[in-house]
Amino acid sequence: MTRIDQPETSTTRKRTVLISGASIAGPALAFWLNRYGYAVTVVEKSGAVRSGGYPIDVRGTALEVVRRMGILTELRDAHIDLRRLTFLHGDGSEVASVHPHSVTGGVEGQDLEVRRGDLTNALYTAVRDNVEFLFDDSIDTLDQSGHGVDVTFRGGGRRTFDMVFGADGMHSRTREMLFGPEEQFHRYLGYCFAVFTMRNTFGLSHETVMWNTPGRAAALYAVGDDDEVHAFLNFARPEPPVEAFRDPAAQRDLVTEVFADAGWEVPGMLAALRDADDLFFDGVSQIRMPRWSEGRVALVGDAAYAPSFLTGQGTSLALVGAYMLAGSLADRGHIAGFAAYEEGTRDFVAVNQGLVGEGGAKLFPTTARALELRNDRLRNLRAIPPAEGRPAHSALALPTFAPTP
Ligand SMILES: Cc1cc2nc3c(=O)[nH]c(=O)nc-3n(C[C@H](O)[C@H](O)[C@H](O)COP(=O)(O)OP(=O)(O)OC[C@H]3O[C@@H](n4cnc5c(N)ncnc54)[C@H](O)[C@@H]3O)c2cc1C
């Protein structure tokens, strides 16, 4: 039978889509697909939109996406005004104290840094009245042998959609169902990290303090004057600790072992790690795939092209990718639409994933010599970078897609 790759007109039924994952990419994609006339369902394995995690950056092209979504002002109000970044030696003495932008390449008055939960909440609020959300559930099977995608849910439901999207993060199950095991696409960058919140007993305010020894970093990030700080523990590990990825107890044990002899505030951080109920642990990795779709199913955000936190661009890629994917489907069927999505987005992804080679990892040196060199560079940092910031963030001029039907 000939497959027809055309959007149905407004006289026919609404096209139905299912999105797996309600974090950043999922709700952003839901917003734009709803705008283009799709009936959207989002399934999320958690009981609600998950709000935890380290603050995130929205930069360059992604700022234009949130502006077009009408949430830029709200996010500007939530902007974290981080004023100081202090680096410490292993003994706790100071290496240098600098303005954060001089390290991140951020641009004053343009880039946004917000609590991850403020962004997920703004995205969810922007779509929840127009989109069906299924929490506490997930896709069990996908079958594309019929005219659409037949989906069974873990919760027992069974439905058919015109298209399905995996916005289910770096360890995407949608990707695994379509393309097979993650190892084929996973590019491990040699580090693991844990983030969690703990009490701000340090008197920190609007600042980050980072302690380093070769191959290890511990940071406390005080977003405001709150009584909580974000704790961050990052360490080099040549091979990914695969067995720990699905086991929070093993993650705690591993981090505790790696930092066992560390000084400064690290012992208190390890004690807090034991009780933290919002631990986020992962390898520092990228996902690189030769293509992002198969039949009527496509991937977006970390599921397709996680760039790693070393680039600071994971959230921005998720937002831009969601915009480009939905826009590519605004007036086309899935075959032409998915091709246009890749064509319009792949270069932007590549240049941003390439940022890891440009210095992200230099923040976390693994040898004493490299750490000394980094510290020298930090001591000599003076100027805030030029106003254009890092061009990779703005490497895509956002197209305008078909108007709202
Ligand atoms: C709670 C949380 C905290 C985070 N904290 C950090 C952090 O501190 N530092 C950092 O670098 N990155 C963190 N991230 C990842 C970061 O949000 C992403 O790198 C980036 O924003 C891209 O977003 P995404 O929507 O593509 O993927 P993600 O933000 O990873 O979202 C994936 C979503 O899919 C859901 N999901 C996963 N599997 C299934 C399934 N089988 N069925 C249904 N739903 C599923 C997840 O619960 C999640 O809501 C965190 C992610 C989460 C979910």
From TrEMBL:
Coiled coil: none
Domain of life according to the entry: Bacteria
Limits of the FAD-binding domain: 16-330
Single Gene Ontology MF annotation: FAD binding
InterPro entries with a match to the protein in the record: FAD-bd, FAD/NAD-bd_sf, FAD_aromatic-hydroxylase
A Pfam family: FAD_binding_3
Annotated protein name in UniProt: 2-polyprenyl-6-methoxyphenol hydroxylase-like FAD-dependent oxidoreductase
Lineage: Bacteria, Bacillati, Actinomycetota, Actinomycetes, Pseudonocardiales
